[in-house]
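We treat protein structure as text, and this decision shapes the records that our systems exchange. Below, we set out a record of this kind in full and without editing:

***
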Amino acid sequence: MGVRIGIIIALSTLFSYLHMLYALRGEALSQLQHHVSERSQREQAIFVLAEDNQAFLKKALAERIRALEREDVRARFDRLFVRLPDGTVRNRPELLDGTKEVQGFIPPNVALDAGFLARFMAAHDVLSWNGPVLNLRFKTTYITLPEGAILGFWPWAPTWTQKLQPDFSISSYEDFPLTLPEKNPQRKIAWTGMYLETVSKIWMISVSTPLDLDGRHVASIGHDVLLDELMSRTINDRLPGAYNILFRDDGQVIAHPELKVEGATTPYNILSAAEQPDLAVSRLGSKENAAHLRGIFDRVKNREPSDTVLELPEYGEFVAVTQLRGPGWYLATVLPKSVVSQPAFVAARYVLLLGILSLLVELAIMYQVLQQQISRPLEALTQATDKVAAGDFKVALDTSRHDELGQLASAFQLMADEVQRREDALRLANEGLEHRVEERTRELKELHAQWLQTARRAGMAEIATNVLHNVGNVLNSVYTSAQVAKERVGEMRLEHVRRVAHMLEDRQSDLTTFLTQDERGRHLMPFLDKLGKNLVEDREEIISLLEDVGRYTEHIGDIVKVQQNYARTPRLHEQVSLSELVEDAIRINSAGLTRHQVKVVRHLATLPPVMTDKHKTLMILVNLVSNAKYAMDGVTPSERLLTVKLEPAADRVFINIHDNGMGIAPEMLTRIFQYGFTTREEGHGFGLHSSALAAQEMGGSLTVHSDGLGRGATFTLELPFHPAQAAA
């Protein structure tokens, strides 16, 4: 009895301890999460402000460039800047006060044309107007141009540009390439990693925003953000017993209580330090600290986005984590479990001591009663319990007593009988359940087979629809060419040949006299010559039309082959002239373009032959030209204009099809390539869908841009640029 009561007290103590532990844990984790959330709002304010500033500067710079493009700024440029003997262009030393004015640097060999000067002076003006105000929160505000020029407001370094070497290149700074189109195709704000500024010896980061005008990168706006205060707050402003860590998702550590930054010139990286044990020891104090930090980093990186509080059982810690807006750094607060469990352990110890004292008093009072009245009945009940636990529900207890133990025995007896009955019922239910599971599994297999068959048929239907749509586009041109050839044959003056033959046959006896003296005879030979020329011209035109029919028919066959190849190996690329393909697409649609009175303007760059899928490319271009033709139905015939542009860009080539037709509503731009979607009453929504898929299969893309209804649309086909000579 004493042991049981002792166990009860121990369990009560344990439950009390666990209850308090969980309560304290919940409170601590809630406080931890709130602390991290509050800290993140405060620490990310400077980054949010930097991004807001750059959005404002980007708009101001774009407007200033547009304004100066209409002005001649060379005279003002020459007053402020001068080309030095080393070839660079810098501020005139006699006029520069770097503590109050904008500094500029242009490397040698940069062409100072009107466009460059407009952008350079626009950057100078924007920094002059806004730099002093922004300097209250940001150490540096600067603007770089893609040619390598840089302007900035650096009052802390008034002669910075004057001391630069002639071969200085801004491309050596991390933020410059981050804004280039090839490195930043989304054209979003870019944040660098942490670095030590070489002049002031202050840790900082840079943020840059690219500016594109008319589809061209023209400038980048940048800020330098000091990190000393942020690092100090991260280490010193913490919850009792906890500590804070600040790190980037590539492993770069910004702040850690054990990290030594004095004398360091580069930031500590968690990932690269794994291969440099000596570096980990010198910067973090020990290999254990480095391994511990690596464990926290891996756990944070592999968490689910919704997990804000993590548990590290191997280190006995809780970690609350959030991501700062702007550079996307992780702010983690680490709280040891011992900080949470210690108060609960102390309280549980007092509960245990009081329980033991109560137990001793109670045992002394109840010993005699328990010995006589309860021990033996409970022993019998215990034996019955063991039998039930072993699976034997046939127990016999003394139910003749009318006290509580008798009632307990009766209740236990009824329970054993009921458990036996339910055990039998459960066994029968399990057998029935297994049978139903087998039936349901069989039904699911049948439904799965039906679904596969339906999906296969749907895929076959989509391929057939694409074939019919693309073949239909070409058949229109085949029909038009055949009709024109038929009309030309009908217009041939073959009956004149027969009349001439009859005339010569009637004058066969005096043919020489007829040809030389008769009025009609003298005109006969010139007439035959002219008739022969007309017949030759008609024959050449008919042959040209029939060659078009043959070429269109060949394209129809290739359309079918392209769709058949979806089920087999991909088509091989062949040597193709893209300008000729564009002309073929226009020629295939020429009858419809002429009928709709559409004027075609070509801007086709001269490119070497490339390796690509000829017929897929032609299929896409035919679809785009045909769609552009129909899009201009609502435009006055004299104003219908189709502009076709072919131009290369780095390792890509772009084909733009622009019409000045009905345009596309903004809400339709995201749906225009969906299967079955169309804006024409007689359309089917197959052409653009299949064309987009074909572009993806060739490693390119098909995109659309429109400024809205009534403002035309531009479809751009982007393909990899693989010159045939390079491929060979």
User: Anything to note?
Assistant: The first helix runs from residue 2 to 43.
